[in-house]
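haha ok so turns out i had the wrong file open the whole time. this is the CORRECT one, sorry everyone. sequence first:
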Amino acid sequence: MNKAHHRFSPICFITGASPACNLESAVSILLESGIRWIQYREKNKTKRDLFYEALKLREITRKYNACFIVNDHADIALAVDADGVHLGQDDLPLAEARKIMGDRIVGISTHALQEALSAETGGADYIGFGPVFHTATKDAGEPKGVDILKHIRASVKIPVIAIGGIKADTIQSVLGAGGSGVAVSSGLLQGDMKENAQRFLSMAASVLP
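then structure:
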């Protein structure tokens, strides 16, 4: 297992959905509640704004010794001393990202078996796979379901982080299918964030060793 994986929490909070409070406050609440993996994902800001917001989140996550990943932008990830970068299929090629990131974490979103196999061959530290269920957070295509997730898990050796419409009452089926963890956005933000985080973590602990 890659040296970085011991830092992965089974629950990754992905920013991007609108929190009831500001983003820094939301991240702080979730970290205080036990979440230890934050992925900063923001599609509609300038790179300058992305840098300054990521820098603030890096400061907050460091206080909790939490893993901090920047979505899409390897340069910003390096500039704020993030733990790594997460790439989509249309972002910088994995091999080029690895040159930039060195031994930091590089994750990549996948939606099919061939993409997952290519990510593993290319040296990704983990893959995101989904959407497992229907999600309104972004247009990510048809839900894949837990059976395909199970097939992906059996086909690659690197961690598989499930994403897409995952709620506290479905996390057990996802982890039971072999998911190494789950990435969640609105499922943590809607309602009481502290209660949501604790419920997700409790459900995860009941499945994972």
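Residues 3-204 form a domain with the TIM Barrel fold (CATH 3.20.20.70).
again sry for the mixup
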